[in-house]
C-alpha cells in the first residue's frame, strides 16, 4: 500500500518540525509537511465556511481562533492528499512522537480492517470499545460507544474516505476531531484502535489551539446551553446506533 505521511505544522513551529524530521530520518520515514493555518492571526470576520449557528448549538460556546485554524489545516491536508497518488494518508499533528514501526503498524491496521475509511490512531478516551479486528501487530480495531473520543492528532484515512469526507467537512459546525468521528453524518466507516499506537511529545502541553481557560471564556452558561444538552443527547444516541451497526 502506498501510504503518505503528512504532518500539519505551523510556520512558526520550527523546533517541532526539526524534531520530527530528525526522528523520521532515523527511521527512514519520508514526511510531507502541510503548512498549518494559524487561526490566532485571524479575526472571526476572516473566518470562511463556518456554520456559526450550528457550532454554537452543538458546542454551547463560540469558536476559538486556534480551533478554526486547526479545522482548516486538516481540510487543507486532505485536499493535498487527494492530489497525490497515495492510496492512504497517515495524518499527524506536529506534537506526535514518531515510532520506528509507525508506517508498518498503520498499514497492518488497514489490512486488518479493509472496509475502514478512517482509523483513529490516537485518542483521549476509549470507553465502551467494541472490537472487530486485530492486526498482525496485535492492534485491536473497532468503535467506541462513548464519545467523542477526542483528538485528531494522528489518524489514517483512505483516498475514498477523504473524497467522501471533504464535502461534509467544507463548512465548520464542529471541532475537526468531533466532525471526523461523526460517521453517522458523513457516511464514512470510522474506526479506532483500542490502545493508542503513538504518544504525544512533551511540548504538546503547550497547546496551539487553546488552554482550558480559553475554552471557559467562550463557553455559554445557564439557559443558553439547554439546546446544546438536548442535541448532545441526540448525538449520543446516533453514536450508539452507529457503533452497534459495526
Offer a quick outline of the entry:
With 246 residues, the protein is of the alpha/beta class. Helices cover 40% and strands 18% of the residues.
> Structural class from helices and strands?
alpha/beta
Shape annotation: globular
Radius of gyration: 18 Å
Mind summarizing the main beta sheet? 8 strands, mixed
Q: Can you tell me the CATH topology?
A: Spore Coat Polysaccharide Biosynthesis Protein SpsA, Chain A
Structure annotation, total helices: 9
**What is the correct CATH architecture?**
Alpha-Beta Complex
- Mean of pLDDT: 93
Using the coordinates above, name the CATH class: Alpha Beta
Strand order in space, largest sheet? 2-1-3-8-5-9-7-6
Q: Which stretches of 5+ consecutive residues score pLDDT under 50?
A: none
By DSSP, the count of extended strands is 10
Query: How many domains?
Result: 1
Helix content: 25-40%
- Kindly, what is the distance between the CA atoms of the first and last residues, rounded to a whole number of angstroms? 24 Å
Strand content: 15-25%
Sequence of secondary-structure elements: EHEHHEEHEEEEHHHEEHH
